[in-house]
């Protein structure tokens, strides 16, 4: 089993540029989660989907952040325009469902905005 | 200026000792709890979980204890090994309302195991 796949693993970009992070959940999993991890704030949930539908996006910092899940095997997190304070590790996780199901995390994308 | 980050609790143990990592959770309605292990440069990895109708659950070398009265969760690792060195997170959720399925993570504890 390939596990959750994220790309790119590392991204360095300049302030103002658009950044797109990608995630492929584990096949058969119906729920997908985007998290952000920083030294300042720890691990924060940004948004999660169930059956490709966004359920809760209250953790999305501001309108510069958007996430989509066009099908069961792919999701994107986009930041436009990016700012230095967006520098963090972004994790994608997936689970079978929502009702107390274990979440499997991907390796993360380390984003640096200069 | 210098940024201020989270000051994570730390636990240092000798190889072979037992380790106990504690977590205080915030929501008395939470009914599902998970412990995750995160090694440097990797995503969090599931260790063990427990539901609110239990107060103890055992896995391989790990035990989770839940005290709902004082909203406290602990992770016990038996015969700790250098490979157990990592940051350990507790997480909570409850199957109700608009937060259904949403995990809230604790700040984490750094475990260092000395050979």
What can you see in these coordinates?
The complex is a heterodimer of chains A (114) and B (115). With 114 residues, chain A is mostly beta strands. Chain A contains no helices and eleven strands. In chain A, the strands form two sheets. In chain A, strands 2, 4, 5, 6, 9, 10 and 11 form a seven-stranded mixed β-sheet that branches. In chain A, a hairpin with a 2-residue loop joins strand 5 (42-50) and strand 6. In chain A, 35% of the residues are buried. Chain B has 115 residues and is an all-beta fold. Chain B is 0% helix and 49% strand. Chain B has strands at 10-14, 19-24, 32-38, 45-51, 56-58, 62-67, 72-77, 86-93, 104-105, 109-114. In chain B, a hairpin with a 3-residue loop joins strand 5 (56-58) and strand 6. The model of chain B has no long low-confidence stretch (mean pLDDT 90). At the A-B interface, strand 4, strand 5, strand 9 and strand 10 of A face strand 3, strand 4 and strand 9 of B.
Topology (elements, then pairings):
The complex is a heterodimer of chains A (114) and B (115).
Chain A lengths: L4 E3 L2 E4 L5 E6 L6 E8 L3 E9 L2 E4 L8 E7 L2 E6 L8 E8 L8 E2 L3 E5 L1
Parallel strand pairs in A: 2-11
Antiparallel strand pairs in A: 1-3, 3-8, 4-5, 4-9, 5-6, 7-8, 9-10, 9-11
Chain B lengths: L9 E5 L4 E6 L7 E7 L6 E7 L4 E3 L3 E6 L4 E6 L8 E8 L10 E2 L3 E6 L1
Parallel strand pairs in B: 1-10
Antiparallel strand pairs in B: 2-7, 3-4, 3-8, 5-6, 6-7, 8-9, 8-10
Short descriptors:
heterodimer; A: about 110 residues; mainly beta; seven-stranded mixed sheet; four-stranded antiparallel sheet; 11 strands; about 55% strand; globular; B: about 120 residues; six-stranded mixed sheet
By secondary-structure content and strand pairing, the structural class of chain A works out as mainly beta
Integer-rounded radius of gyration of chain A: 13 Å
Name the helicity range of chain B: under 10%
Pick out the low-confidence regions of chain A. none
Class based on secondary structure composition and strand pairing of chain B: mainly beta
**Overall morphology of chain B:** globular
Gap from first CA to last CA of chain A: 36 Å
Looking at the structure, what is the overall shape of chain A? globular
Reading the helices and strands of chain A in chain order gives: EEEEEEEEEEE
């Amino acid at each position: 089993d390939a596990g959750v796949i994220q790309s790119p693993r590392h991204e360095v970009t300049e302030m103002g540029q658009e950044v797109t992070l990608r995630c492929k959940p584990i096949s058969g999993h119906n729920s997908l989660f985007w998290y952000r991890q920083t030294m300042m704030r720890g691990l924060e949930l940004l948004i999660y989907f169930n059956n490709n539908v966004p359920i809760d996006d209250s953790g999305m910092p501001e309108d510069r952040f958007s996430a989509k899940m066009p099908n069961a095997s792919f999701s994107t997190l986009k930041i436009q325009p990016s700012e230095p304070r967006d520098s963090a590790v972004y994790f994608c996780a997936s689970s079978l469902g929502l009702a107390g199901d274990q979440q499997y995390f991907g390796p993360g994308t380390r984003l640096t905005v200069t | 200026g210098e940024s201020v980050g989270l000051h994570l609790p730390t636990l240092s143990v000798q190889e072979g000792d037992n380790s106990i990592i504690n977590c205080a959770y915030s929501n008395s309605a939470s009914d599902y709890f998970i412990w995750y292990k995160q090694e440097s440069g990797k995503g969090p990895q599931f260790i063990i979980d427990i539901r609110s109708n239990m107060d103890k659950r055992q896995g391989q070398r790990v035990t989770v204890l839940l005290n709902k009265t004082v909203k406290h969760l602990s992770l016990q690792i038996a015969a700790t090994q250098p490979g157990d060195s990592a940051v350990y997170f507790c997480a909570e959720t409850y199957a109700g309302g608009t937060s259904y399925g949403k995990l809230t993570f604790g700040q984490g504890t750094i475990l260092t195991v000395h050979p």
